[in-house]
Design goal:
By secondary structure, the protein is α+β, with helices and mostly antiparallel strands. The chain has helices at residues 13-21, 47-58, 62-65, 68-75, 114-125; strands at 25-28, 33-36, 41-43, 98-104, 110-111, 134-142. 31% of the residues lie in helices and 20% in strands. The strands form two sheets. A three-stranded antiparallel β-sheet has the order 1-2-3. Strands 5-4-6 form a three-stranded antiparallel β-sheet, with helices on one face. Helix 2 crosses helix 4.
């Protein structure tokens, strides 16, 4: 598998999408993020993080990743955690996993970790183990955050 990034024009969205797609990556729009289609979650947009993910998780060889760092940098995508949360009841995203999670009824903080939710309740709302103030198990969260 050789890289298409070396011949890819970063000003041509179709070429970029095709080159990323060959590595199992999806360039999401309108919420700008890079999604690993195999893992079904958004990757941090630093060039090193995307390349490291492909190598350490999918064993994508260096030749296939040649030029990837430059292409990722050219996108200037924000960190996925800063993107707006998708609205409840939204159409499922075809490339993101849906995970059970918890939502704070006071401020709409969302997480898949019950431990993080407990810490959130304690620090932000000064409530300890108040499970009545958050919803869990019935909430599905896309993995773009």
């Amino acid at each position: 598998m050789s890289s298409d990034f070396s011949i890819c024009n970063s000003n041509n969205p179709e070429q970029l999408e095709e080159a990323f797609g060959k590595l199992g990556l999806f360039l999401n729009r309108p919420e700008p993020c890079i999604i690993c289609t195999a893992c079904q979650y958004a990757l941090h947009p630093s060039a090193e993080a995307v390349s490291k993910h492909l190598w350490s998780v999918h064993e994508t060889p260096p030749a296939a990743r040649k030029g990837l760092n430059r292409a990722v940098k050219s996108l200037r995508f924000p960190n996925p955690s800063t993107l707006p949360v998708r609205h409840d009841g939204s159409t499922l995203h075809p490339h993101l996993a849906v995970l059970n999670g918890a939502v704070c009824k006071i401020c709409d903080f969302r997480t898949t970790s019950l431990e993080l939710m407990s810490r959130h309740m304690s620090k932000k709302h000064r409530r300890k183990n108040d499970r009545k103030t958050w919803v869990s198990d019935e909430v599905d969260l896309d993995t773009n955050t």
